[in-house]
Structure of Nuclease homologue:
Amino acid sequence: MIAGLILCASLTAVDGDTVKCDGQNMRLLGEGVPFASGIDTPEIGSNAKCLKERKLALIAKGRLKELLAEKGLRVVFSGAVDKTQSHRPLVNIYRANGEEIGKRLLQEGLARMWSPKRRIDWCD
């Protein structure tokens, strides 16, 4: 697949680090490198391991929803898809001011840095 700009008529938050672009789920990289680094947010609903994680997930999703409502967003496909069954495209979303949305979530404490060797526990 070729990296490049993606046009979305509809862009919505699925959870804190997944968006839906015209019906297709896409995973936020947060300026990371596919399969080496990125961002992670708490799991939502029944995927959460505890009540704290579930609450944090709703906050992260709410903030992502706010950010996605801004005008002038650019969705940039990295050229890679994740290793889940749905093969979500790995993307960065940039605000009109050039800031990457995943980076904003990190700065606000709603996401953490992800790496393949590190397991994130939102319950402690």
About this structure: The mean pLDDT is 94. The beta strands are 4-6, 11-13, 18-21, 24-28, 38-40, 74-81, 89-94, 112-114. Residues 24 and 88 are 8 Å apart (CA to CA).
